[in-house]
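[step 3/7] fold_predict: job queued, chain A
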Amino acid sequence: MGLEGEQYVEDNLGVMSVGFLLASPSDAVIWRGPKKNGLIKQFLRDVDWGEVDYLVVDTPPGTSDEHLSIVQYLSNTYVDGAVIVTTPQEVSLLDVRKEINFCKKVKMPVIGVVENMSGFVCPKCKIVGLCHQLISNLLTADTKESKIFPPTTGGAVKMAAEMEVAFLGQVPLDPRIGRCCDEGKSFLSEVPESPAADAYKQIIQKILDYCADKSEDQ
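[step 4/7] structure written:
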């Protein structure tokens, strides 16, 4: 997000990270469970978040101490649920299935699943022929999108259906996403007309609709 030594990105967006507490961005965080859990509790309790419409917690992959701590510390609050992110290949889906089952066991609602890196859309052209020379072994003549990571077992769409959770959408590979992340810029602001930006907007709208519907039910 382009932050070093800061705790906000925009007037309406605040950020807290363990990275702010390290002497160097390259320092490793080698902490055991109790210390990690204590830091998570501090982030939730001691940070002056102000008026918050949405609190988004970005967790590492898997079902580790961090996930258990967050579920425990927020157990008495109103939590909309978890958004699970995967890539299309089976090696990623294996972990995501475990994460969904974890959520079900701890009674954490699953808002839905997002498939990241779903396909490659060339940012330089709108027809296949112009980029065919660069990735000819990946493209076919009748499509504008290349499957860099083929969904050999059906991808997130099939997995979501099998596990009875909502499928929120697919975000295509776009090199500009990585560049915006490296430069701390908003991809939606920098490339608002791209297929990936459209995908993000549709996914976000589905999440907001879910939260609004759930709030009405409370």
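[step 5/7] annotate
The chain has eight helices and seven strands.
The first strand starts at residue 8 and ends at 10.
exit 0
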